[in-house]
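Researcher:
Attend to token order:
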Amino acid sequence: MDTHDGRSVPFTGKRTRRVTTLALGITTAVLLAGCSSTGGNPEASGNGVASGTADTPRATIAMITHEVPGDTFWDLIRKGAETAAAKDNIELRYSSDPEAPNQANLVQSALDSQVDGIALTLAKPDAMTPVVRAAVDAGTPVVAFNSGFDQYQAQGVAQYFGQDEKLAGIAAGQRLTADGAKKALCVIQEQGQVALEARCAGVIEGFKGQTEILNVNSKDLPSVEATITAKLQQDPAIDHVVALGAPIALTAVQSVTNAASSAKIVTFDTNAALVDAIEAGDVQWAVDQQPFLQGYLAVDSLWLYLNNRNTIGGGAPTLTGPAFIDQSNIDSIAEYAKAGTR
């Protein structure tokens, strides 16, 4: 949760699940600062964040995600991973495929090439189970991030970095209630993706009004725009559209205009364009899970394990969100968003 500067608005709800706080990520950064071969004189990593370079043996880590090509959210995750890799003397092999069987094949290829560690997402965990189990059984350290909060432990993965998507959805639903919303449209851009479905399930649980789910195809944004437009025209009672990603939120802004609707747009996740939309009032708020940090910690945690057998979280997830970003605190992260790291 991004609270170190006191300007992000954290979720204050409770859940019985034991979690590990982001303070562990800060501890990691402090520990690594003492391991730099540059003697405290960091070098720029090329993406707006400075870092030193570890003098530990060169290692190879594969990062395999379910990224949809062109999604700016994943650019942030990749930059975080690259920053950690540059600092930790790691060769990072990044690959992605939105289709679960293809993603599983990429994991198998990484395992066959005998990488030193694997960081992966579990958006559709059932398809990933055999290959993840194979990696764990082979003794290759595996960490999960971003997707698979409820499934990673059952697959034998020791570390997870991301947010509890159901909890984040509950927080969003509670905020909708506080905002006076009566009927929300929760737009799922990839049916069957566990993280997205958990978000809408959380919204339904946390929101005291009525929630309707709309499935769209994120690979075809013109179709997304038309589908949301048609729904708003059909049901003028919808007063809030809940997007589950910045590109969908920005598309929904146009849909609201097309439909001459008074519905307000809220979303999960951010990018630089969304910062502008929040500043302009086109999007009311976003639930931030800090994607740069997820990528950074996934790689950094493997470096720690390979060189010191450390694990972060003690088996419990390390949470990177949720926190709300709105007009009250957007200025605190705007410069970082413009630099491509938030």
Notes: The first strand starts at residue 9 and ends at 10. The two ends are 13 Å apart (CA to CA).
